[in-house]
Structure formats: structure tokens, C-alpha cells
Amino acid sequence: MAPINVTVMGGRKDYVPAKETLPEVDAEGNGNGNSAKGYSYETLQETANFLLARISIRPTIGIICGSGMGSLAESIVDAESIPYEEIPNFPISTVEGHHGRLVFGRLDGVSVVAMQGRFHYYEGYPLWKCCLPVRVMRLLGVKTLIATNAAGGLNPTYKIGDLMIVKDHINMMGFAGNNPLHGPNDERFGPRFPPMNKAYNYEYRKLAKEVAKEYNIENIVREGVYTCLGGPNFETVAELNMLKMVGVDAVGMSTVHEVITARHCDMNVFALSLITNECVTSYETDDQANHDEVLDVGRMRQDILRKFVSRLVTRFHQIDNASL
Ligand SMILES: O=P(O)(O)O[C@H]1O[C@H](CO)[C@@H](O)[C@H]1O
Ligand SMILES: Nc1nc2[nH]cnc2c(=O)[nH]1
Predict the structure, then answer these.
(1) CA pair distance 312, 146, nearest whole angstrom
(2) What backbone phi and psi angles, to 5 degrees, belong to 293?
């Protein structure tokens, strides 16, 4: 048999080992990170206690700012910010458009905490670590999660700059067994087999549509199904056409696992996608998705997003308190 020719790669002078430039990730992962068990309840309690000792407010609503949507946190008054680097057990943000800090304070009088910067699977973090802040928020007393994201619009009626209220998701990564709840379950967080059919709170979605009318933006507000892929590459035409066929309206690389984690620990969830680009579903175009465009659309919509989300916080707070 003829020998197989093996080309030895190497000798690239510009190659910088990732370890020198990127943070250490997945310290407790077993290789690929998918089988990592996550931090214990006690470890996360330590993180929560650290934060409680540093802040004067007690947040009840948590906000995750999507790519280029960090300005959502700029409406927060009496703000106390803590960089992720200072928080025990927290990962750090490595993506442009994600500042990397928790901002505590008040939005229209409601005590909130905002993540200015989320963690993504493609950064090298296992899903449980991407979602660690959600559990920490819960331990701080947060009962409602508002997760925002930038997403590609797959529904052909969607336009760049539209806001999509997430009605449901398809957990594509979960189909392959990659789930933030993978591993031993601690019942203090939540049950082994959490239901997901009512993941996105119906009352919140209804209110959001009312607020859209009140603010005269109902023409840009949609409601649809989101899916998260692992990234970091944007999708191929064939992948997008497949997702379209199964009923996906918007595509991103986040949120789904955060929502699963939040529902597991009994948080009420609202999610909002900013449509930052049209998904390219034809071979007959030179259009290409890119992160700069994603960030630009975030900037373009920042005023509307700030007003909309601030108002949602007030309205969600009202109904949460009414149902106590
Ligand atoms: O989901 P967020 O963090 O908003 O960001 C989305 O936009 C980035 C790609 O431009 C990816 O990180 C994708 O997940
Ligand atoms: N996967 C994915 N994530 C995005 N984030 C913003 N736009 C997109 C997109 O088109 N695809």
C-alpha cells in the first residue's frame, strides 16, 4: 500500500498560542467542556454573597444585553458597576460589543441588574458557564429575566432593525446533547426534568405588544421563534434554508441556554431579538453577515430599545407584584 502523505503544518511566524491572548476557560471541564458539571450551589452562593456585600440594592429583574445593546444599561440610575474580572468564579467577556460588567441600579424605580456583556459557547465556555450569571442573579433574588440578543432575520417579512419578541425557541445544540443542565442535578437550583413548553411568559409577551402600541412602534415589533447555533461562523445558505423549513424566524448564538437555565430555577422569562441582518438564503447574492453590521444596527436602535425595555421593566414589575 502506498504511504499516506502527511503534510506537517507549522512554522507560521504570526501564530500566537491562544493561551497567551485569551482567558483560561472551562477550568473544570473534562476536555470538551460539555461534560463539565458546573459550579456547586455553595460556590455560586459565595459569588452571590460577594455581590450582595458590594451593592446596596436588591435586584428583582435581570437584563442581559445583547451584542451592541450594552447601552440598555445606560438608562440605569444610581448605578453600581462591577467588572466581571472582580467577581469570584465569573468568566470574562471576550467579544466586541460586550463590555464585561454587571450594572446594578434602578430603571424607573425598579431595582435591576444588567449584564453588559454575555458569555457565548464559541468563546470557549461550556454552556453551564455561559449561564452561570443567570443562576447568580437568581441567588441575588432576581425573579424575572429579560434576555436581549442580536439575531439574523430568517423570516422573509422581517426587516433590519425590527424587534422580535421571542415566542419560543428550538434548542438545536440540545439536539446534539449539549445542554446547560447536562450533568448531575442539584434540586436547590431546580428539577431534573424541567418543562420548557411555556418558557417565554405569555403575560409578558402580551404586555410587550401593548407597550409597542403605546410607543407607536408596533410596525417594527414582531413575534417569532429563535434558534441558537454554536457559532462563531454565520450560517451557510443550506443551513438557513433548513432552519426556515422547521419554523425558525431568527437565528443567533445565545439566549436559548440562558432561558433554559432561568426556567430551571423558576424565573419568568422574556426575550427580545434585534434583527441586525437579513439571513442570506440564496446563492445569487454577494451579501454576507458580519459582526460590524450587527453592532451598527444595535447603535441605530439604541434609543428605541432603551425606552422599550425600560417600560417593559416597569410593566413586568407591576404584574409580578400584583400576582404575589
Ligand atoms: O446573541 P448576542 O450576544 O446578542 O450576539 C449575536 O451577535 C453575534 C454575532 O454578530 C453573536 O455573538 C450572536 O450571538
Ligand atoms: N447565528 C447568527 N447569529 C447572528 N447574530 C446576529 N446575526 C446573526 C446571524 O445571522 N446568525
Answers:
(1) 9
(2) -65, -40
Determine whether the shortest distance from the Cβ of 252 to ligand 1 is under 6 A. yes
Please state the pTM of the whole predicted model: 0.91
pLDDT single digits (tens) 94-126: 888 778 999 999 999 999 999 999 999 999 999
Q: Which atom of ligand 1 is nearest to the CA of 289?
A: 10
Dihedrals phi, psi of 275, to nearest 5 degrees: -80, 110
Answer yes or no: is 118 a known binding residue: yes
Which residue is listed with cell 450551589?
A: 41
Give the number of other CB atoms < 10 A from CB of residue 256. 28
- Ligand 1 contact, 169 CB (< 6 A): no
Confidence label for 9 from pLDDT (cuts 50, 70 and 90): very low
Question: What gap in Å lies between CA 179 and CA 84, rounded to an integer?
Answer: 24
Q: 172 CA to middle of ligand 2, Å?
A: 14
Which ipTM score applies to this complex? Answer: 0.99
Query: pLDDT grade, residue 324 (50/70/90)?
Result: low
| Domains along the chain with CATH numbers | 32-186+193-322 (3.40.50.1580)
Query: Measured between alpha carbons, how far is 238 from 181 in angstroms, rounded to an integer?
Result: 30
* Closest approach atom of ligand 1 to CA 150: 4
75 neighbors 314 (Cβ within 8 angstroms): no
Give 17 Cα–ligand 1 centroid separation in angstroms.
25
C-alpha grid cell, residue 158: 422581517
Task: Count the alpha carbons within 13 Å of 228 in the hemisphere toward its beta carbon.
Answer: 27
d(C-alpha 197, C-alpha 269), whole Å: 12
Residue at grid coordinates 461550556: 126
pLDDT the model gives residue 77: 96
- Alpha-carbon 82 to chain mean position: 19
301 is in an annotated binding site: no
221 Cβ partners below 8 Å, 6+ apart? 162, 163, 164, 165, 208, 209, 212
Whether 175 has a binding-site annotation, put simply, is no
Q: Residue 142 is placed in which grid cell? A: 432576581
